[in-house]
Amino acid sequence: MDNQLLNSLYKTYKAPALSGRYINLNMIKPLLDNLPKSYNVEVIGQSVLGEDILSLTIGTGPIKVLMWSQMHGNESTTTKAVFDMINTFSGVEIQSILKACTLKILPMLNPDGSSAYTRLNANNIDLNRDAQDLSQPESKVLSACFNNFNPDYCLNLHGQRTLFSVGDTNKPATLSFLSPSQDELRSVTSTRLKAMNVISAINTGLQADLANQIGRYDDGFNINCVGDMFQSLNAPTILFEAGHYKDDYNREVARGFVYKALLLALNYIANDNDLGYKMEDYFKIPENGKRFYDIIIRNAKYNDQVQDIGINYLEQLMDNKVKFRPKVVAISDLSQFYGHKEIDANNNVVLNNDNTLISMDYENDFVIVNNVKLSLNL
Questions:
Q1: Residues belonging to the active site
Q2: Which is it for strands 237-242 and 292-302: parallel, antiparallel or unpaired?
């Protein structure tokens, strides 16, 4: 599956009804209602607030693949890509995947968190730390689905913050992947290796289009995390993390790369490819660093010193849209960090909107440098 085909498929089948960062249940229900009758859509449970948790089953093949998105309600990029992928199955180009695989897709595991645009569910619980206790209805739904479906592979679909870099470089981690550990020793078991090989196939397929912007997520073992739990039950599990691409705060470019990664993963799984991948291919993918701020103001005069000012955007849901509010989170030497946007203060004082010296936790749309207002907005 080459890059030219992937780009053509994405252009053809991208779901136009979904865009931006805010995706809730009311947006995806009409899309599921309009799918062909051969696509089995069913309600498999309810959230804390009684919202439906929906499942879509498609394909007739013997290899069973379970995937779920928006376990964290504010991580919507993969949900958009999932519907782009679902649309693609209406065409003839990749029907071989559906002949080899049966896909069970939970496009929105946490509808309450998705509606409120929060990471947590309505009980303020992180569902990705509830794999052992199963204290939440959403966790119980996913666990029951796993047990009943008995998948051969799991795709755990998430989004990550803008701070992540590929290693310690100035390249943002637009996509990151993980084959979770099965034990405290992080042993490379046969199950982990299967997941590693899928990730290696994704990485190989995307490097031409996303060179040096793919990272590897930390593999510290935590049995409370769903991916670690399912991996420990010998279901090869691949964590997807959709991250930042230059100027892509609505994650529309990242969405396209997630889409391609999904098809590359399924194509590899469906064709049972033996491409000779080894664990070394997986570990060659650089581990994520944390080297980015959204904005860095360089060379600011601050209390008779020259300092850098780190600013990150806070995401806030307003009028059904996500607004990005700049907030000062660091004033120090940030020479080891990068800004997605950088401003040079040229040894001038940086002032708040009331002409006082810039301070930690300052939130406003602009700063003042040498009597000039400099916008901090996107």
A1: 280
A2: unpaired
